[in-house]
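Q: what does this look like with JFZ bound?
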Amino acid sequence: ALGQPGYRPAPENLEARRWFHDAKFGLFIHWGIYSLLGDGEWVMNNRRIQVADYEKLAAFFNPIRYDADAWVRLAKEAGMKYITITSKHHDGFAMFDSKATDWDIVDRTPYGKDVLKPLAEACRRHGLKLFFYYSQLDWHHPDYFPRGRTGRDNGRPERGDWPRYLDFMDAQLTELLTTYGEIGGIWFDGWWDRPDADWGHDELYAMIHRLQPHALIGNNHHREPFPGEDFQMFEQDLPGENTAGFNRAGVSRLPLETCLTINRSWGYHRGDRNHKSERELIQTLVKAAGRNANLLLNTGPLPDGTIQPEHAERLRAIGKWLRANGQSIYGTRGGPFPPGPWGVSTWKGRRVYLHLLARPQGSWQLPPLKERIRAARLLHGGAIPFTQSEQGIRVEVPAEAWDPVDTIVVLELRDRPGRS
Ligand code: JFZ
């Protein structure tokens, strides 16, 4: 089975989906022993590093400046409501105290401590939820066999016991779901390495939903969600777009999430200075909200445990923007207008927020709306002229009110928009 057949989400799960939908903004963290090489999280595969050589890296991982509380405070200052961190990436290295293997941070590094535990505690202290990224693909485990598309040149023997690998994953996920208190959910990745394999999702998903019914399961398989999954994710693209080339899946009715790098790397990359501007990042958050999706914005911390200053700076800037404009983002739903070249819309109750992201020649023209508009005003300013007819809606925004990041117009409707 591709998923968990006959899955019916528990009431707690539906409640968590609403929370997720309202939350809008999270921090993605790619951190592992690969961070030491400053060449992204795929370095083991890309440089064909032999397992025996890669294992030596662990002896250098000593993040003495890691301060989980500081990470969570930064995420909170950025206006983020949750954190998703790599508990195990494709290199198979567990960033937690796994009993199912000694290929983990406690057994193999001089640091010798579980980094997820203090993060879970700090998240609880500051009211953020914590999700665990978990790679199903494993370039290190001997039982990850037959091999898939990647990790073929790392010097592993050409044999292995797949059912035993599935048991290993079950064991690690049980640890993740029973050691850190309530977690937000599991963010799976790596399925695409072996799309034809039997991944045991029926049991795996059922087990997760049994251990923590509210926990949301997502899987970055780039297909439409399988039964048993609770949200749909998109990578480096907004839902419905496909600039990356692998986002061909349609948009489902589940809560949506787009993950995005600040530069072009997930794991720390010392040469990647292509950091997106504050404006671009804020506009992406807004465009995601207008498409009913969350933004999961990534940073790859340094091996010493600190967050790149270029990233911290941008996160703070987004937070500042959200403190002024967050009412038009948090707790809203996308629509009622479909996204257009002019921008996007969000709504909550009887209030619609127009996020004007591009400046037309004359006034802004929007498609018609069934509900009557009572008034239009700037979120940061007074009433503005508007007309509403069967042909559509026009709003006039005074030139001096134009904000190159996002000009927000509030429409007060007589009734709430139809279901979106
Ligand atoms: C995956 C990971 O491989 C990557 O390291 C990172 O964690 C990201 C969030 O998720 O990225 C992928 C996975 C598969 C493809 C492309 C990117 N693919 O099949 O084209």
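The mean pLDDT is 97. The chain has ten helices and 16 strands.
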